[in-house]
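Quick one:
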Amino acid sequence: MINYVIGVSALVFLIYRAVKSLKRRQRIKAGRAYFSACSGCCSDCTSHCSG
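Output:
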């Protein structure tokens, strides 16, 4: 019975970590897309612009 509880809690923990990692990766991806978009003013742009 204890092995069952440990196994289930380990599985829940691994799923939780995977979901958290995916959400973090999506947040980073969205942030990168936001900062790479030029606003028209090259001083505001974090990537290289040919303004």
